[in-house]
Amino acid sequence: MSTSITVRDIDPADKSWLRREARQSGVSMEELVRRLIHEKRTKTDRRPKPSEAFARHFGENHGVELPPMVRRSYKPLSFSQEARNE
Length: 86
Description:
51% helix
């Protein structure tokens, strides 16, 4: 069973790049796209750690200072009475 997709409004430069890469690899453009999609999925299939997700959404690029790293994990923040009174 074969399923095909149509990509509309693809940039002509991207299309010529795909054509060139497929020709160099000796496969069709469709097969090259399948391989690129498979490669991307295998790289992103793993679920990110909570610390990675936090850093991606709230990290330094977004104005949030992350707690210091302590041996492969983040040092837990403490909210003691002394810290509140200061």
